[in-house]
Amino acid sequence: RRVSSVLNRDVKQFGKQHLFDGSEETCWNSDQGTSQWVTLDFPQPVRLSELRLQFQGGFSSRLCTLEGCRTGEELVKISELYPQDSHAMQISFQVEETVLDKLKITFGSSTDFFGRIVVYHLGVLGERL
Predict the structure, then answer these.
(1) Percentage of the chain modeled with pLDDT above 90
(2) Backbone phi, psi, residue 54, to 5°
(3) Of the options 3.40.640.10, 2.60.120.260, 3.30.830.10, 3.20.20.80, the CATH number for the domain spanning 2-128
(4) Predicted TM-score of the model (pTM)
(5) Using CA of residue 44, residue 105, residue 122, residue 9, what is the dihedral sign?
(6) Domain F5/8 type C spans what residues (predicted)?
(7) How many contiguous H segments (helices) and E segments (strands) does the chain have?
C-alpha cells in the first residue's frame, strides 16, 4: 500500500494503515493538494469486481479514476467512479471484472477547498487467482 500524502506527515494518526483497520474511529487523511491517490500491490493476481469507499463528508472525491495492471506492465484506466459527498459507506461501485496485480485509485476532484481527502474505509472485492 502506498498513498500520495498524509496530513502533516502524521503517519501514526492519519496513515494508510487506517484504510483497512475496520475501525470507525480512524482514517487516512491526505495532506492538501490535487490528485491524491492510493496504490495497492497484490501478492498474487486478483480479479477485481467491486470497490467500497467511506469518506468523511466534505472531504470526499467527486471523481475517482481506477487504473490497474499486471506485474511489469503499465497502468491502464479501468473505470471512473462518481462518489457522493457523504459519510455513508458507498458500496455499489461495480467494476468491470479485471485481472490485475496493482490497483491505483486517484481522487481527482476533492470536495474540500484545499484538496484534502479523508477515507475511513476502503474495500476492494474480488477473487484471488
Answers:
(1) 71
(2) -135, 110
(3) 2.60.120.260
(4) 0.91
(5) positive
(6) 1-54
(7) 1, 7
